[in-house]
Amino acid sequence: MLVTLNFALPRALPGRPIASLSDPRSSTYVSERSTRAEVNAYYGHGRPLHSQFGEYLGRLVRGDLGTSIQYGAPVARVIGERLPWTLLLTGSALVLATLIGMLAGVQSGWRRGRRSGTALLATFVAVDSFPVFFVASAAAYVLAVSVGSFPLSGARTPFSGSWGPLRQALDIAHHLVLPAAVLALQFVTYQFLVTRASVVGELESDHLELGRVKGLGERTLKYRYAARNALAPSVTVVGLQLGFAVTAAIFVESVFAYPGIGRLMFEAVAERDYPVMQGCFLVLTVLVVGGNVLVDLVIRRLDPRVAA
Question: Cβ–Cβ contacts within 10 Å for residue 122, how many?
């Protein structure tokens, strides 16, 4: 089913995959009509859909994702060059959002009804009201263009390959800060609300009352009792956010010209590059499914009752 959708979705878009070859304004423009005809015949876009689908399945079984129309290179190689950057970006954003959301959620839930707890709740709800493309554009203009504290685009400084390993790592981290922070803002509120709700549900629990009777300090009760029981729901949230991370990464990578698979997919859609679109959809689907399986395994370790 997923493979069929993966094949059908690109072809449901308006426009032809080699239309850019006929457009003088396109970067992939080819002036010779015979060359354009050969390219069209090579990719088989003039054949019936069932014939194209059969060829696609045959290549997929052999591990061949096809050849990119835009780049003229194997799709597997094109995606392989971009995928590590997306994993770094989304992984950093999810970790950052989880840490901030959990810590703030524990604090707000523990101080429910107090001024500090209410202020945290209002702040995170307000942050969630801004769309990702607006936050990314505003952050790029203010922090990268006006202030100049962070690079405006890219994942590393050009010609930095000759630098030492430490300097290269710091350069990559410097380019990562702004897009990762913007992407984390899209996840942090949901993580905050789930953690807060879990902690609020623990406030009147029997084991917490027992801890108070024993004379345990507030920090111990907050983090070793209430926060510990909020771990499983927080990890579940990470699994749910994996799919959304793919969509949000497309906007963030496009605004910051980050060389990840999200930007690659955006470019492929613009150029109607079917092989790249199919490859991106397939790889991202496998990543999301695999990530959710990993999250389920972690939840079973955190809460043995789930496996029962």
Answer: 11
- Over range 148-167, report the average pLDDT: 86
Q: Domain for residue 142, yes or no?
A: yes
CA distance linking residue 175 with residue 157, whole number of Å: 8
Q: What is the pLDDT of residues 49-85, one digit of tens each?
A: 778 788 888 888 888 888 888 788 899 999 999 999 9
191-228 exposure pattern, b = at least 16 Cβ within 10 A, e = fewer: bbbbbbebbbebeeeeebeebeeeeeeeeebbeebbbe
Instruction: Note if the pTM is more than 0.85.
Output: no
When mean pLDDT is compared over 106-120, 175-189, 200-214, the highest value belongs to 175-189
**Residue 104: CATH number of its domain:** 1.10.3720.10
Cα 283-69-12 angle, rounded to 5 deg: 65
Question: How far apart are the C-alpha atoms of 256 and 175, rounded to whole Å?
Answer: 9
Query: Residue 50's domain spans which residues?
Result: 2-61
More confident residue, 2 or 101: 101
110 SS3 class: helix
Residue 207 CB partners (closer than 8 Å, separation 6+)? 225
Identify whether 71 is part of a domain. Answer: no
No. of helices (H) and no. of strands (E), the chain: 13, 0
Q: Which residue has the tokens 């209430």?
A: 226
Tell me if 67 is assigned to some domain.
no
- 114 domain-assigned: yes
Do residues 16 and 163 share a domain?
no
